[in-house]
Design a protein that fits this description.
Layout (H helix, E strand, L loop, with lengths): L1 E7 L6 H13 L4 E6 L14 H12 L5 E3 L14 H11 L4 E7 H5 L7 H7 L1 E5 L16 H4 L2 E4 L8 H9 L10 H10 L4
Parallel strand pairs: 1-2, 1-4, 2-3, 4-5, 5-6
The structure holds adenosine-5'-triphosphate (ATP).
Length: 199
C-alpha cells in the first residue's frame, strides 16, 4: 500500500486541492490519499473560519469523486486545544498502517517553510515527501534548511501542476456572495450554501 497524508486547513477544500491530489496519485501510484483537515494549524495566526466538523464534512463530500481519496479525522482538534503537529500525525499513521509506504503531500509554499515545522529531520524520515508546484511560489529547497543527499532522495517534486486557486481568495469571494461554483466540487458548493458558511 502507498498512502499519502494530505493535511491542510481545507477552509474550504477546493478543486485545486483535488487536482493536486489526483496528479500526485497518478504520478506516484498512490492507493490512498487521506485528506486530513487540521484541528489547529500551528503556523497559521488566524484560526480557521469554518469549524473542524464542517471542514471534515466538506472533505468527505469532495472525496466522493475519486476512489483513491478519503477524508480522515486523524488531525482532529485535541481536547486541550493544543496545536496539531504533522510529525505526530505521521508517526500515528506509520503505527496504524505498518507495512505501508507513507508519503506526505504538500504545496511548494508549505515545503518552503519546513524549517518552522516541528522536528523537520524526523518528518523527512517518517515519510517520503511529494511537493507540488504552486503559482507564485518557487519549487525549491526549504528556506534555511539545507537538505542532505539522503533527505533529498526522499523528496519528490511534481512541477506540472498550476492551480491558481487559494482558500483565502475563495473565502473573500464567498463572503461577497459569489457561490464560486467553478472552483468548488458541486456537493461542497451546495454544503456551503445550505449552511450559510463564509458569509
Ligand atoms: P490559503 O490560501 O488560505 O493559504 P491553502 O489552500 O493554501 O489556503 P490549506 O488548505 O492549508 O491552505 O492547503 C493545504 C495544502 O495544499 C498545503 O500544503 C498547500 O500548500 C497546498 N495547496 C493549497 N492550494 C494549492 C495550490 N493552488 N497549488 C498547490 N498547492 C496548494
Amino acid at each position: 500500500m502507498r498512502v499519502a497524508l494530505f493535511g491542510g486547513t481545507f477552509d474550504p477544500i477546493h478543486r485545486g486541492h483535488l487536482a493536486i491530489a489526483a496528479a500526485a496519485a497518478d504520478r506516484f501510484r498512490l492507493d490512498t490519499v487521506l485528506f486530513a483537515p487540521t484541528g489547529r494549524q500551528p503556523l497559521k495566526v488566524d484560526p480557521s473560519v469554518a469549524g473542524f466538523g464542517d471542514r471534515l464534512e466538506m472533505a468527505a463530500l469532495a472525496c466522493r469523486g475519486d476512489a483513491r481519496f478519503a477524508a480522515s479525522e486523524i488531525d482532529a482538534p485535541h481536547p486541550d486545544g493544543a496545536p496539531n503537529f504533522t510529525v505526530d500525525t505521521l508517526a500515528e499513521m506509520a503505527r496504524q498502517q505498518s507495512g505501508a509506504t507513507i508519503f506526505n503531500l504538500v504545496g511548494a509554499d508549505s515545503f518552503h517553510d519546513l524549517a518552522r515545522w516541528r522536528e523537520p529531520e524526523r518528518l523527512l524520515k517518517l515519510a517520503e515527501w511529494i511537493v507540488v508546484s504552486r503559482p507564485g511560489h518557487t519549487l525549491a529547497d526549504p528556506e534555511g534548511f539545507p537538505l542532505t543527499d539522503a533527505q533529498r532522495a526522499r523528496i519528490h517534486l511534481l512541477d506540472e501542476v498550476q492551480e491558481h486557486v487559494s482558500a483565502t481568495a475563495l473565502r473573500q469571494r464567498l463572503r461577497e456572495g459569489d457561490a464560486c461554483r467553478e472552483l468548488l466540487p458541486a456537493p461542497v458548493a451546495e454544503f456551503i450554501q445550505s449552511r450559510g458558511l463564509y458569509r
